[in-house]
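Put briefly, the fold is written as integer tokens. One such record reads:
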Amino acid sequence: LKKNDIVFSFQHQIIKDPEKYNFFLINCHPGDLSLYRGIKPIFWSMLDNQKFGLISIHHIDKGIDTGDLVIEEKFKLEKSLADNYFIAYELAPITITKAINKLLSKDYQRSIFKIRKNNSYKSNPNKEQIQKFYKSGFITKLSIINFLRLIKCF
């Protein structure tokens, strides 16, 4: 790979020693990195009653979801966890395209925005957190309309 090449990471891949690479290492994360680094960011956003989710595109550094932010796109959270992930995965390619254009622009400068690294790492929810999720009226099933949209892809 060459200097201006871009490598994207999705879903739980941790790249060790990212500073040794001479190209852009970028992650697409379906959550607000100042609040939900780590896994299941949409679940945690819903549990915290956030109104919106974020697709965050950021540089990969030594930490987990702590690299400099490239771009974010906001989307409205629904009551269904599966629907929210479906929406996020539909929005991800659009956000990635914007990030690529930004990264390859002649005047691109790495953001001075630093992701807040304190107390925002999330791991798998425990039994009580899952129960709270369901008691809050959230569901995990895909809606009929998004199910039909999904099978239309095949």
User: Anything to note?
Assistant: The chain is about 30% helix and 20% strand. The beta strands are 6-10, 24-29, 37-38, 52-59, 69-76, 121-122. The CA atoms of residues 52 and 116 lie 19 Å apart. The first strand starts at residue 6 and ends at 10.
